[in-house]
From TrEMBL:
<keyword id="KW-0274">FAD</keyword>
<dbReference type="InterPro" id="IPR045170">
    <property type="entry name" value="MTOX"/>
</dbReference>
<dbReference type="Pfam" id="PF01266">
    <property type="entry name" value="DAO"/>
</dbReference>
<keyword id="KW-0285">Flavoprotein</keyword>
<keyword id="KW-0560">Oxidoreductase</keyword>
<protein>
    <submittedName>
        <fullName>FAD-dependent oxidoreductase</fullName>
    </submittedName>
</protein>
<dbReference type="GO" id="GO:0050660">
    <property type="term" value="F:flavin adenine dinucleotide binding"/>
</dbReference>
<dbReference type="InterPro" id="IPR006076">
    <property type="entry name" value="FAD-dep_OxRdtase"/>
</dbReference>
<dbReference type="InterPro" id="IPR036188">
    <property type="entry name" value="FAD/NAD-bd_sf"/>
</dbReference>
<dbReference type="GO" id="GO:0008115">
    <property type="term" value="F:sarcosine oxidase activity"/>
</dbReference>
<feature type="domain" description="FAD dependent oxidoreductase">
    <location>
        <begin position="6"/>
        <end position="362"/>
    </location>
</feature>
Length: 377
């Protein structure tokens, strides 16, 4: 039997769940299919904390920040779940274009202030500061483990069909829609839809390259690099320390290589810290989930030097994926009947409800995404 649907969202991580929420709010019929179960840890949307870091100066991102702060509050009110802890975020070190960030945020009505290193060290003694420090009080930590069920629960309440353990085994694209072959424990089902929203994370290229395209249109998108990122939760050694979210640019020759460091406190788990976007390239279907020894050792050494409030020898390693574009800007675009949301490059989660809104705009033809996110850039 061939079931006829309006919109199918492929991938039930953060962005797919937000897209289903946004579409359902507009009264659209939406079916969300996810190949794994709820709260799985195989992709990029698990764990209890993500930094809502306001540290941007590019106009499109700053506008999305302002919208996102309002939408997260709206989602909290609608769902009754606490999703954001406003601990503030500090960014320090010689990089990050902090004066530009300060000016852009202040102009947008998002609070920001420079703090001298000595004062910062007194306020947040678990972190060592030696250069410029930008404090952004409107930032904090988001909870993916609470946010994804909230998006899906609210979408389902408006009629969305949420299907876990459902894999797309066939993907055909026509001028006027798509045909999907879905596999689940119930068997194989063929569905036809007016459009598909692809939010498949690390599986995006596999899915699009496997699509049988009958329109002659190619899915030309920026190359996606899937990496296994390996932060860790360090045990708190100073129970009296106050922890904001933090980002640090330690310099261009740290341990022979360069990467910003991000971190935050995860209640009950410790202080999360990690390198940004420099993990080993992986196939998302074939990961070992084991930390790369050299990077883990360098992270411990970083903690010894820059995080006096933790025990660098007592930690729990974490594993997640980044799906990164060459310019680290997202892909938000529509090609024929296929809407693509991909390449969130390790900094997309804070924008989740905004990205859901943008994907819904693309699916309904309401308005295009900002040009920096075009697939053809």
């Amino acid at each position: 039997m061939n079931t006829v649907l309006d919109t199918v969202v492929i991938g039930g991580g953060a962005m797919g769940s937000a897209a289903a929420w946004a579409l359902s709010r507009r009264g659209r019929e939406v079916t969300l299919v996810e190949q794994f179960g709820p709260a799985h840890k195989i992709g990029a949307s698990h764990g209890a904390t993500r930094n809502l870091n306001p540290g941007y100066h590019q106009p499109d991102y700053v506008a999305m920040l302002a919208e996102g702060l309002a939408l997260w509050e709206e989602l909290e009110q609608e769902s009754g779940a606490q999703l954001l802890a406003r601990t503030g975020v500090v960014t320090h070190g010689p990089g990050g274009d902090l004066p530009k960030v300060f000016e852009a945020l202040t102009a947008a009505g998002i609070r920001a202030e420079f703090v001298v290193p000595a004062e910062a060290g007194e306020r947040w003694r678990g972190i060592r500061f030696d250069q410029q420090v930008l404090h952004m009080p409107d930032g904090g930590q988001l909870n993916p483990e609470a946010a994804l069920p909230a998006f899906q629960r609210l979408a389902a309440a408006r009629g969305a069909d949420i299907r876990h353990h459902t894999k797309v085994a066939g993907f055909e694209v026509f001028d006027d829609g798509v045909r999907l072959t879905l596999e689940s424990a119930a068997g194989t089902e063929v569905v036809t839809a007016a459009q598909a929203v692809v939010t498949a994370g690390g599986w995006t290229e596999k899915l699009l390259s496997g699509a049988l395209n009958r329109t002659g249109t190619e899915f030309r998108i920026p190359k996606l690099r899937v990496t296994q990122e390996q932060p860790a939760h360090f045990r708190v050694a100073d129970p009296g320390a106050v922890w904001p979210g933090f980002n640090h640019y330690p310099g261009r020759d740290y341990q022979g290589w360069y990467s910003p460091v991000y971190g935050m406190q995860t209640p009950g788990e410790g202080i999360k810290a990690g390198w940004h976007g420099v993990g080993p390239v992986v196939d998302p279907d074939h990961r070992d989930f084991l930390p790369e020894p050299k990077q883990l050792a360098a992270l411990q050494d970083y903690a010894r030097q820059w995080l006096p409030g933790v025990d660098p020898d007592s930690f729990e390693a974490i594993s997640c994926t980044y799906t990164t574009t060459p310019d680290e800007d997202f892909i938000l675009d529509r090609i024929g009947p296929v809407v693509i949301g991909a390449g969130f490059s390790g900094h997309g989660f804070k924008f989740t409800p905004v990205i859901g809104r943008i994907l819904a705009d693309l699916a309904t033809g309401t308005r295009p995404a900002p040009s920096i996110f075009r697939a053809s850039r």
